Amino acid sequence: MKSGFCAILGKANVGKSTLLNRFLAKKLCAVSDKPQTTRHRILGILTDENAQIVFVDTPGVMKPSYELQKVMIKVAFSSLAGTDVAIVMAEPHTVEEELIHKVKDVPVIVTINKIDLLKKREPLYNLIDRYREMPDIRVVCPISALTGEGINTLLDEVKSLLPEGEPFYPEDIVSDRDERFFCSEIIREKLFRLYGEEIPYTAAVVIDEFIEREKGKTYIKAIIYVDKESVKGIIIGRGGKKLKKMGGLARREIEYFIAKPIYLDLWVKVRKEWRRNIHDIREFGYTS
Ligand SMILES: Nc1nc2c(ncn2[C@@H]2O[C@H](COP(=O)(O)OP(=O)(O)OP(=O)(O)O)[C@@H](O)[C@H]2O)c(=O)[nH]1
Ligand SMILES: [Mg+2]
């Protein structure tokens, strides 16, 4: 049996969370077409007959400009401590030299994602050659996390770099996070998907109550904290329509995720400038 940790790192929006979901064949992590969707370190545990791989999804690496982003960067790099393998994910048009140099003492698999978007394959071969010339890179894997192309090869490469050992987690456990956490992430993902521009970045979601009942629906009270009064109005929308639509999408996905009917009670509150205040950031569950 092989077992170990595999951190997935890369710039924002390259497809890290999509890859983790693809590995687990389960929608676990929030995915959106906006950068900086992921704010936490999230484990996705894959156990099969000969290995247990603990994949670690991380926030995208970027230049931080406010406190929350600083915390996110710390979260990303702290996931390298104790990891057995690092997947450094890149898109087909960039070379992630800087990031690769930051990963020290861990075998690196460079993963070029989104190859389904390439019209021609030649530029890809040149890119693979450039990575192969760099020291410390074990393997270069072109993949599409979206279509699944190349995923099995990548999985085999990860396995081959893991040490022999007993599993860390029972085989039916898929994450270190609980249902409450994933409920808040589903709601946050819907904010990313439904609202334009800056709006999702100003929001944090906190599950205030989560009450399971013997009979009837699970009651979930969630508070969306935003940093300005004007954003609150935009999230709620005229006559509450926009929030209702968002809530409906979130409710359906939460019901699917926890396999129970729920009543979702959504509130929007203002916590001025929370993204710049470390105490608020911690209170909302973001820690490195
Ligand atoms: N065409 C294509 N799109 C992809 C692929 N993988 C991910 N995407 C899309 O890329 C966008 C970002 O995906 P995410 O998985 O959220 O990216 P991420 O790296 O986790 O982003 P952050 O959490 O913001 O750092 C989404 O719109 C995905 O659907 C792929 O292989 N091909
Ligand atoms: Mg992500």
Detailed description of the structure:
- This protein is α/β, with parallel strands linked by helices and 288 residues long.
- It has two domains: 2-160, Rossmann fold; 179-283, GMP Synthetase, Chain A, domain 3 (2-Layer Sandwich).
- The chain has nine helices and nine strands.
- It has a six-stranded mixed β-sheet with strand order 2-3-1-4-5-6, with helices on both faces. Strands 7-8-9 form a three-stranded mixed β-sheet.
- β4, α3 (97-102) and β5 form a beta-alpha-beta unit.
- α6 (179-194) runs antiparallel to α8.
- The radius of gyration is 20 Å and the shape is globular.
- The two termini are 31 Å apart.
- The relative contact order is 0.15.
- The site of magnesium ion has 6 residues, from α1.
CATH level 1 class label of the largest domain: Alpha Beta
The best one-word shape is: globular
Percentage of helical residues? 25-40%
Oligomer: single chain
Q: Which small compounds were modeled alongside the protein? A: guanosine-5'-triphosphate, magnesium ion
Query: How would you classify the helix and strand content by structural class?
Result: alpha/beta
What's the CATH topology name of the largest domain?
A: Rossmann fold
| Beta-strand share of residues | 15-25%
What is the domain total for the residues? 2
Q: At CATH's second level, what is the architecture of the largest domain?
A: 3-Layer(aba) Sandwich
Mean pLDDT over the residues: 95
Q: How far apart lie the N and C ends?
A: 31 Å
Organism: candidate division WOR-3 bacterium JGI_Cruoil_03_44_89
Region (G3): 57-60
Family: Belongs to the TRAFAC class TrmE-Era-EngA-EngB-Septin-like GTPase superfamily. Era GTPase family.
Membrane topology: Peripheral membrane protein
